[in-house]
């Protein structure tokens, strides 16, 4: 768990059977008027994702809202990750490789991976 001074979180949800690779990141940002905002970023791993900012009157309200959001995500299967755009080497849901390294591909081209 992270220390109290930095409540930001980076969560991942990976389920190869459902072709699901998602990230969720959230943190607190102080406002100019003494309040605080909860900054949320989410989307498919590898995409730029979406952003939502929710502003609260006090930092304590924002901290409580952030805690509620994180608890909800963890109940839905998200786990702690190092970076919202990077995939952890640990694969809790599947032993399927996240990157296909079995065949050579030309540099500079993107290829969709199969789940064979």
Write structural notes for this entry.
The chain has one helix and five strands, in the order ββββαβ. It has 116 residues and is of the alpha+beta class. The protein has a single domain, classed as q64v53_bacfr protein fold (Single Sheet), CATH 2.20.140.10. The radius of gyration is 17 Å and the shape is elongated. It starts with 8 loop residues before the first strand and ends in a 36-residue tail after the last strand.
Q: Which features does this protein show?
A:
15% helix; 1 helix; YehF/YfeS-like_WGR; five-stranded antiparallel sheet; q64v53_bacfr protein fold; 116 residues; WGR_domain; alpha+beta
**Strand order, biggest sheet?**
4-3-2-1-5
Largest sheet: 5 strands, antiparallel
Low-confidence segments, given as residue ranges, are: 84-112
Percent helix range: 10-25%
- Do you know the CATH architecture? Single Sheet
Number of strands: 5
Structure class? alpha+beta
The H/E string reads: EEEEHE
Distance between the amino and carboxyl termini: 36 Å
Quaternary state of this entry equals: single chain
| Shape summary | elongated
CATH topology: q64v53_bacfr protein fold
Task: Quote the average pLDDT.
Answer: 78
CATH class: Mainly Beta
Radius of gyration: 17 Å
The CATH superfamily appears as: WGR domain
Instruction: List the total number of helices.
Output: 1
How much of the sequence lies in strands comes to 25-35%
As for the number of domains, it is: 1
InterPro entries: WGR_dom_sf (IPR036930), WGR_domain (IPR008893), YehF/YfeS-like_WGR (IPR049809)
Protein name: WGR domain-containing protein
Organism: Paenirhodobacter populi
